[in-house]
Amino acid sequence: xxxxxxxxxxxxxxxxxxxxxxxxxxxxxxxxxxxxxxxxxxxxxxxxxxxxxxxxxxxxxxxxxxxxxxxxxxxxxxxxxxxxxxxxxxxxxxxxxxxxxxxxxxxxxxxxxxxxxxxxxxxxxxxxxxxxxxxxxxxxxxxxxxxxxxxxxxxxxxxxxxxxxxxxxxxxxxxxxxxxxxxxxxxxxxxxxxxxxxxxxxxxxxxxxxxxxxxxxxxxxxxxxxxxxxxxxxxxxxxxxxxxxxxxxxxxxxxxxxxxxxxxxxxxxxxx
Length: 272
Known about the structure:
This protein has seven helices and nine strands. By secondary structure, the protein is of the alpha/beta class.
């Protein structure tokens, strides 16, 4: 029996284990909306008390969120098959293996303690896939990006933990540095962010998620245009269709009573 790898993370870096747990829980289902065998392998190889997360009641929602990102990256690679994807704050996301076209170049940028864990579990495979330790706010990572064949930047589960001025500065810097590029990010609605700041958000069992500082309601994506004159346009992406009640996921944004509870996923186009 292979010895499991012990992982000890807390605070914001620790959220990568919560995300992985829910993604793997959905992938184990015979009717899963997301195929992610590598996520299952990771959970099975990690020595961590995943039971502290409780029942994975948010697994399908999380998988649909991830699938929305996958489809955005897939559209980018259709137009730019040799392009670069920069994944800021990627944690233990396994998106590369789900959407790899055999040509994409992939750069992961994450905090040193997260990179150390990632390298133990998901070793680099240069030159197409590399991991760089550092904060997304330390813009030196931009020097590692050759955007000549197109660039897409993703920030999945990251921006809500930053201060509003940090989010604005990061997006503006990307727009300035990568003309013609694209950014895809997710956000939390204002009501949920305010609740998390009053008292850590209960996500099940003994786990308490860190507070969220930056927020954006569904339908507010045009506010991002104010961050930089180099931003050419924005759009709110639809969630994929799920099973059961989640079959309505693509249309939740049109239901007034519940639309503000949806986490928006926004695509930002930079001016060329």
